[in-house]
Amino acid sequence: MAENLTVLIIGNGAREHAISQAYENSADVKRIIVASGNDFITYNREKEVIIDKNCNLKQLESILWVAKKHKPDLVDVAQDDVLALGTVDLLQENGFLVFGPNRNAARIEWDKKWSKELMIRNNIPTADFRPFNLREKENAVDYVKSVYRENPNKLLYVKATGLCSGKGALKSANLEEAIVNIEKMKYFGDAGKTFLIEDGLEGEELSYFVATDGFSMRFFKSAQDNKTAFNFDRGDQTGGMGAISPTLLTQNKSIENDVRADLIGHAIDGLRFENLTYKGILYVGGIVVDGKPFVIEYNARWGDPECQVVLPSLESDYLETVLACLEKKLLSFDIQQDNKTRVCVVGVSRGYPDPKEYSDVISKRIYGLEDAMKIGGIKIFGAGIKIEDGKFYANGGRLFSIVAEGDNIIEARQKAYSAIAYTYIEGNNLHYRTDIGWRDVERFYSKNLKI
Ligand code: GLY
C-alpha cells in the first residue's frame, strides 16, 4: 500500500481516540478522520486529525456518505452498534477497504444467544444458560423459581441478548432480584426481547484481545477492566471506569495459554467452520474460576477502556498489523509490545451512568487537563468533551481516560492518580474511582515484588 494514506475511524469515544493515536504513529498515515469523534481527539496532534461530526452513527447512509466524502484509503469500524448495523458489508460493497468483522461475524457480540450456542458447538468453556422470550416471561419466572427452590444461594445473571452499552447483564442474588431483573428486560427494547438466564460464575474477570485474519491470530497483552461506578466493585454497571494492562493474573501461563487456545482459538476456528471468516479485533471478556478461564462474552472490537491501556504498548506498526489481517498475511507477521504496565482511570460526570443524574453536569467547565498532560508518561484520551474557545466542557457521561505508564502497577497507578488529581469539574462534579487495579496491587505486594 502507498504512503500518505488517509484513515477513517468510525466511532466517537476515548477508544477511537486511542486507535487514532496508533494510526498516527504509522509513518505511512498522513491524515486521520474520526466520525463522529469528539472535540478532544483533535487536541495537540502531530498529524492532520479531523473529526466529522456530520455522521450519524445510527444510520448506514450517513456513514457511507461520510466515507464517500473523505475517500479514505482504509476505514476502521471500531464501535459495536455500528458493526451490528452491517457497516463493514456496506462499505466493502461500495469499494472501500474496511477493517472490522462483517455483520454476520460480528454476531458473536450482537446476539448473545447465538454466541452462547457457538460456544457450546465448539466446546468453549462458558457458564450454563437458558434462553427465554419476553412474550413468555412466565416460563423464565418458573425457571428461576425452580432454581432457587433447589439452591436459595444461587447467583444468576439475566442478560439481554442484544447490545446494551455494557449494561444489559443484571446480577441476581436471590429469587426476588431475578424476577425484578426479568421484568427489567423490557426496558432494553429490541435488545431485551430475547434474554438469557445464566449461571453466575464467581471468579476474577480478565479481558484479552487478538488481531485475526480469520485463520491466524496475533495476541495483545491481557487487561482487566473495572466496570462498576464505585470503589469496591459497588454501584451500577458502567461502560468501564478504568483498566490496567497487562494484569499479573496472566503471569500464570496456564491461564494465558487456555485463553489463547480454548477461548479464542476455538472461537475463530468455529466461526470459520461456519463460513464466517472473522477479520478484525476479537475481544474475549473472560472470568477465571479456580485457575480455569471461562467466556463471559465475546465482543467484535476493542474494549473501552482496555484499548486505551493495551494499544499504546504496541511497538509494531498498527497500520501494518491491520493490513496483514486484511491481506491474510498475519501468519508471516509478528507484533512487538513493550514491557510497561499501564493504568487508565476514567473521569466521568457525577451521576454517571444515569443520564438523568448527570444531565446538569453537561456544559460545566473541565479544568486541569493541560496540567495533567505535562506529567511524563501520561496520555489523555477524550470522550464526552467539548472544546470552545480553547476551554474544555463536559459533554456526556464518560469524559476522558487518563492513561499512565510505569515499570509496574504501583508506579503506573501512582502516576495516573497524580495526573487525575489536577483535574476538576466546576461545582465539584468530577467522579472517578480511586481503586483501579486493586487486585494487581494486592498481587504485587503479596509476592513482595520490588518497586
Ligand atoms: N470494557 C467493556 C467493553 O468495552 O465492552
List the helices and strands and how they pair.
Blueprint: E1 5-11, H1 14-24, E2 29-36, E3 48-51, H2 60-70, E4 74-77, H3 80-84, H4 87-93, E5 98-99, H5 103-110, H6 112-121, E6 129-133, H7 137-150, E7 156-160, E8 169-172, H8 175-184, E9 194-199, E10 204-212, E11 217-219, E12 224-225, E13 228-230, E14 234-237, E15 242-245, H9 253-273, E16 280-289, E17 292-299, H10 306-310, H11 318-326, E18 341-349, H12 355-358, E19 365-367, H13 369-373, E20 378-382, E21 385-388, E22 391-394, E23 398-406, H14 409-420, E24 424-425, E25 430-431, H15 438-446
Helix pairs in contact: 5-6, 7-8
The structure holds glycine.
Residues 166, 225, 240, 299, 303-304, 306 line the site of glycine.
Give a verbal description of the structure.
By secondary structure, the chain is an alpha+beta fold. The chain has 4 domains: 96 residues, 3-Layer(aba) Sandwich (Rossmann fold); 72 residues, Dna Ligase, domain 1 (2-Layer Sandwich), CATH 3.30.1490.20; 129 residues, ATP-grasp fold, B domain (D-amino Acid Aminotransferase, Chain A, domain 1); 106 residues, Phosphoribosylglycinamide synthetase, C-terminal domain (Glycinamide Ribonucleotide Synthetase, Chain A, domain 4, Alpha-Beta Complex), CATH 3.90.600.10. The chain is 31% helix and 28% strand. The protein has 15 helices and 25 strands. A hairpin with a 3-residue loop joins strand 13 and strand 14. The longest helix has 21 residues. The N and C termini lie far apart (44 Å). The mean pLDDT is 96. Bound molecules: glycine. Glycine (GLY) binds next to loops.
